[in-house]
Design goal:
This protein is α/β, with parallel strands linked by helices. It is built from 11 helices and 8 strands. The chain has a single domain, classed as TIM Barrel. Strands 4-3-2-1-8-7-6-5 form an 8-stranded parallel beta sheet.
Length: 264
């Protein structure tokens, strides 16, 4: 599983000192909302993926106010000026009940709009790395959305990555685990949006990739690490804390080696 470290700090893409990477490049997950108003962008020194910021935009306005043309133009700029973008989420429509209450639409409406947006973005900028996202709430919703993509001519099994939306607040539950198992068995290379430790320990081995910003909230609830006392009150935006958290998380997901057959 490729694990993207979520960050509020897009400068980490280019300015994060390699010492924080612990000799490894750490792929980052950055929101479009953190990049869109920046006049100057710098080349990335690590791979990354782009979140569309849809949850915030729909929460604020009850719809997408950013047009597909504008979004595609911005992603084109990120590719040209930052580089190393591995995939970009489309302007998808989340299906949590709170989001449906914001829009006044149904799960089926959100799925149709998510699919239509992917098709439009691929028409506007077919060379950019747009990733389909499956949306839903109940397991059958996701199956129907997969059928909708198929009817639109999109073979999800042929996609480099397929996002699994509207699961981050319930990614440790049994229904989501069974859904991931089913979709992975069908050949989908899934990206788990906002998967946290419990969910990753259950199904991380079935995901192609995942991301999390949980480290930041974790850090904000405690004093800064001893080595950071002179720098900040908490480590909610601290690369040392973030990369250490990521390493500890990944280490916790690695199963112990099987005992040797020749062991006494």
């Amino acid at each position: 599983m490729r694990f993207y470290l979520g960050t509020h700090q897009p400068d980490w893409l280019s300015h994060l000192n390699h010492q924080w990477f612990e000799a490894d490049q750490v792929p980052l997950f950055v929101s479009h909302r953190r990049l869109q108003d920046r006049r100057t962008l710098f080349p990335a020194n690590t791979p990354w993926a782009l979140d569309s910021g849809g949850f915030t935009e729909i929460s604020m306005y009850g719809r997408w106010v950013t047009s597909p043309d504008t979004y595609a133009h911005d992603v084109r700029r990120y590719v040209d000026e930052i580089g190393r973008l591995e995939f970009a989420a489309p302007q998808d429509w989340m299906c949590e009940p709170v989001m449906l209450s914001k829009t006044g639409l149904t799960v089926a409406d959100h799925q149709a709009r998510t699919t239509a947006n992917l098709l439009e973005l691929r028409h506007i900028a077919p060379d950019l790395p747009w990733a389909p996202v499956l949306q839903g709430w109940e397991p059958d919703d996701y199956r129907r959305h997969a059928d909708l993509y198929e009817a639109a001519g999109i073979d999800l099994t042929a996609e480099p990555v397929v996002g699994l939306g509207s699961v981050c607040r319930r990614q440790s539950t049994a229904p989501v685990h069974r859904l991931v198992e089913e979709l992975a068995a069908a050949g989908l290379r899934l990206h788990g949006f906002g998967f946290k430790t419990l969910g990753l320990r259950k199904v991380g081995h079935l995901l192609a990739s995942a991301d999390s910003l949980a480290w930041s909230l974790n850090a904000r609830k405690r004093p800064a690490m001893a080595e950071c006392f002179d720098a900040h009150e908490h480590c909610g935006n601290c690369p040392r804390f973030a990369t250490r958290w990521r390493r500890q998380l990944l280490d916790s997901l690695t199963p112990p080696p099987a005992p040797s057959a020749y062991a006494a």
